[in-house]
Amino acid sequence: MNFEHLRALAAIIDEGTFEAAADLLKISPSAVSQRIKALENSVGRTVVRRGVPCAPTEAGAVLLRMARQVQVLEAETRHALGNGVSSRTVTPVAVNADSLITWFVPVLHEAAGWTDTTLDLHVEDQDHSSRLLRQGDVIAAVTADPAPVNGCRVERLGFMRYVPVAAPALHRRFTNGAGVDWAGMPMLEFNAKDDLQRQVLRSRGVDRTPPTHTIPSSEGFLAALRAGLGWGMIPELQLDTDLADGTLILLEEQAHRDVALHWQTWSLESERLNRITAAVRAAGRRQLRTTGQDRGKAAPGRP
Amino acid sequence: MNFEHLRALAAIIDEGTFEAAADLLKISPSAVSQRIKALENSVGRTVVRRGVPCAPTEAGAVLLRMARQVQVLEAETRHALGNGVSSRTVTPVAVNADSLITWFVPVLHEAAGWTDTTLDLHVEDQDHSSRLLRQGDVIAAVTADPAPVNGCRVERLGFMRYVPVAAPALHRRFTNGAGVDWAGMPMLEFNAKDDLQRQVLRSRGVDRTPPTHTIPSSEGFLAALRAGLGWGMIPELQLDTDLADGTLILLEEQAHRDVALHWQTWSLESERLNRITAAVRAAGRRQLRTTGQDRGKAAPGRP
């Protein structure tokens, strides 16, 4: 295998076409084709699915991940040798939406002091994060899934607690002598994969789905809760003063759900990766819970 | 064309597989197949690309949109006839991330009072919104693009102003006697399509791209600005007290960018669609600017 060939593959996937990859690498499109052909001959399989944009085949994804790892190592070696000190390498990391705007914020503060790297955040749900790790699009990810992606290390960061809240007016409209009318009160969902609200309904023995609004944005979800559009599960970390000032009320003390969060990274000895891992670990320790209901199983949570 | 056939098509696309569509429609998978085959015979083209999940072909997308429109009309007719009053129909709407958490919030408040519909929001960039409108996945969208999708109505809502801001510490580090060092100061981008920062750099004659962090979340973007990770363009509507309390400072008075926002809806006489249009129009009028730099051309803006 040849570094130049791997670099050509990464450029095609990053840029989408052979022509754009050629521009990036400052070589001719036919030179790009030749490198890919050489790569395909050496592994005996097709590596790029031609299309707009081009996509890696299964074999291509494996090679692409190696290409990314080589890029990381190369950049660090260059940096250690004192070449290209002024240029920064990109650190691609996947993080779920709710984490990014809550406990992950101190990582951004830390990263503001790093002069050798920039962050390329991917805000993705957990399934997609695993795919991004597998094909080398990110080198690390916050995931709800404790099962390591092949070739990755995983550690548990802690638990993110979600609590059921609603605007007072909505709560009044759907509360009677028997308590909250869970089957009738409109509900919010982050997206189709967000099972947190339904978990609460099931635990209350409610099998009818109430009218459901879908709001796939962490901040939008909170805005919709405040607007009284529906009730929903929200990270306690995102609540701030809403409970204290009565903008939102806690529906039931006991109906919270704890989602275990994990940090997955490539098994790669990289100073840069170790540094971000240390920052993420410290941020998690400061704001996530150390114990939760969920004891390590994958909990279908909020992406 | 037959309503049952269209309904089968919509169910397959919504649920992903013929089997799941059969479950939803409470018919057998072979009955679903027969309906699709009948639909394909009647239009003389394939309408579903078999896969996991199934996807509409080009012809299928045209039919799918008709299917959605029929669903809207059917639901309203049912409602008008007094049947199924207690059930709600879903209103799928696309809105860009920055709008959702700023001027669009009053629409959520309005919608909290509607008892006949739930919102299914899609937070998408403008290109994707057009595709969603075209294939009938949403019936209305906030877009930056003034060109109506075929079969849609479009009206301008107003202008969203973006201003360049940074944390004071970052600003100090990259300001010298000559002013802001635009080529050196790290920058934030929402994603690869977010051209707002580069527009400002170009207008300042800067052709080198500074170190760039990518943060594809409106709230995360603001958190990263506050953390001093980089400078960036932020909706003035999102700034709140940040400028007043010195958390962020305005880099240049004159470097703002105005993005024209439009409301596109299907050309369909629907009471429900008219109601959300009225709410969106009113919310836009309250918070968006009526004039801007950009005079109606499509401005590549923040998704």
From TrEMBL, chains A, B:
Superkingdom, natural source: Bacteria
GO molecular function per UniProt: DNA binding; DNA-binding transcription factor activity
Record family assignment: Belongs to the LysR transcriptional regulatory family.
Domain (HTH lysR-type) ranges: 1-57
Stored SUPFAM superfamilies: Periplasmic binding protein-like II, Winged helix' DNA-binding domain
Transmembrane segments: none
PANTHER family hit by this protein: HTH-TYPE TRANSCRIPTIONAL REGULATOR ARGP (PTHR30579:SF2), TRANSCRIPTIONAL REGULATOR (PTHR30579)
NCBIfam families in the record: argP, PRK03635.1
Record keywords: Activator, DNA-binding, Transcription, Transcription regulation
Protein name: LysR family transcriptional regulator, chromosome initiation inhibitor
